[in-house]
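Researcher: We plan to redesign the surface later, but first we want a full-length starting point. Tokens attached.
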């Protein structure tokens, strides 16, 4: 056999080995790419869920309450709409289990439920505190969102 006759099969065998190695490596790369695509699809789904939840929350009002000192001895409950949408029929009360209720009932009858609370708007209620007052109150707040759903926020207020 001549060198030429031996070289041709060796070159063919070398080409088969290179093709096989290339095929194995490209298959591994393709498997990794499928894994990354699956991860990317799951991430995109999660982002869509977060965007949807964020849009829903942007359509809802967020109302909070604080107890603010207005003078040397005067306090007020400040109810504030912190969202970008209007809240309607805003209602505020002191938890029934509280040892005392510093709300002035006549004022509550006049103002509550507060008809419209625009974004960033607030209103106040007198807090008739005295030396024996609890100074810590659980306060349920409720309101109606622009979409008609009723929302509630239980706030713990202290001085």
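Model: Full-length starting sequence:
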């Amino acid at each position: 056999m001549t060198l030429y006759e031996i070289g041709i099969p060796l070159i063919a065998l070398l080409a088969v080995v290179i093709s096989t190695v290339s095929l194995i490596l490209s298959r591994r790369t393709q498997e990794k790419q499928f894994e990354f695509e699956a991860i990317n699809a799951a991430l995109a789904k999660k982002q869509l869920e977060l965007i949807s939840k964020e849009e829903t929350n942007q359509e809802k009002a967020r109302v909070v309450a604080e107890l603010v000192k207005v003078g040397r001895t005067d306090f007020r409950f400040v109810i504030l709409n912190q969202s970008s949408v209007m809240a309607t029929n805003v209602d505020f009360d002191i938890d029934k289990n509280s040892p005392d209720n510093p709300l002035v009932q006549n004022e509550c009858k006049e103002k509550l439920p507060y008809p419209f609370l625009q974004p960033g708007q607030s209103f106040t209620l007198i807090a008739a505190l005295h030396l024996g007052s609890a100074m810590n109150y659980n306060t349920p707040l409720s309101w109606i969102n622009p979409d008609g759903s009723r929302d509630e926020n239980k706030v713990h207020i202290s001085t």
